[in-house]
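Many introductory courses stop at the sequence. We go one step further.
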Amino acid sequence: MRLLLLFCFLIVGFVSPQAHAQRSDSIAAVVNEDVITYTDLYDRMNLVITSSRMPNTQEFKERLLPQVLTGMITEQLQIQEAERLGLETTEEEIDGAFAELAGQNELTPEQFQTVLRRDGINLDSLRKQMKSQLAWGKVIQSQIRPRVSLSDSDIDEEIERLKRREGQEEYFIAEIVLPYGEDTNADEAEVRNTARDLSRQLQADIRKFPSAARQFSQSPTAAGGGIIGWITPDQMSEDIALALENMDVESVSQAIKTDGSYTILFLRQKRVIDLNNGEDEERLNIKTAIFDLPQDEAERKVIQDDIDLFVRDVKGCLDIIQQITRRDHATLRNYDDTVSNIPQNIVGAVSDVNIGNVGTPIETSNSVTVPMLCGRDGGGSLIALEREVENRMGMQRMDVLQKQYLRDLISSAYIERRV
């Protein structure tokens, strides 16, 4: 599981040294048999602000504090659940995640540690976050994914629903969810102000959305940059549907009040539902990451190792843009056309993958091209339509099951917040 953190290596202390000394041994929260100290909390706050590139101001941090603590409580419950199930996360796995993050910042692990320490980042806080993500990934694979099953009748019913909505719009969206209320001990007014601040920052730079979702959102979609995928208005609340109707593509919404939370949306794409009935040629959207291979063998090996990490860890069509933007040795090319107008080796490389996944890398003597399927429309192919519907329904059911699993963990846990 990859971590998308882009460090600016600039940080201002959240509190004065005197205040730090006063709270260093105090408990911010109790989570079953574990505790989260104020030191843990403020170390994480520094990490969150730096990695998401949000405003490093006292006022913003104070409003964000309850959300950060909620995230830490969730992480602790996820680690505890993995341990209860006997799913071990080793130090070697965390070291691997750390090395990957260092590589994304074009540093060795040793250099990365030096930079983080120099700028006041607590390495234990970062490693704890990595551990929770790795552990929760194992819980999902062990407990949730096996429960996601779709019958032929499920897929047929969804296709019939789409046929009834043919000619209407559907949306490809991502979300940031900030809950409030008794379960989170977060005041609605404070969460509303935080959500509005986040919305303004993300409207100014939509590229921050995936990393902000990973750090701030309290939805199961957070790990994937907040991506929900394609969704129709009848599958969302009235408030969300109304907001989407008035949004432009590639834009971020204002903070939207929903039941027990404030939600920020990113609308990546919208389209009219058109099942085509076999009349038109299939149209694909494929993003390709092109890695240049140097002639020097040592340099070539470094690039090839980076390609392996990229293929293993890239998480969807928003993430591929962010990852390639940070790499000097790679470029991004987008194909959005009918199948006959896209190079056939590219089409063949993604023929058996679901939307949001990478296909088979294509290597030449000078480069490696990694394709990712980001959309499939038309073609009148029942197989293609069924595959898209199955992928979409599977992701939606995974999301529902994760939310329920987390709610059950929270409701059965002893949680005492002191912030």
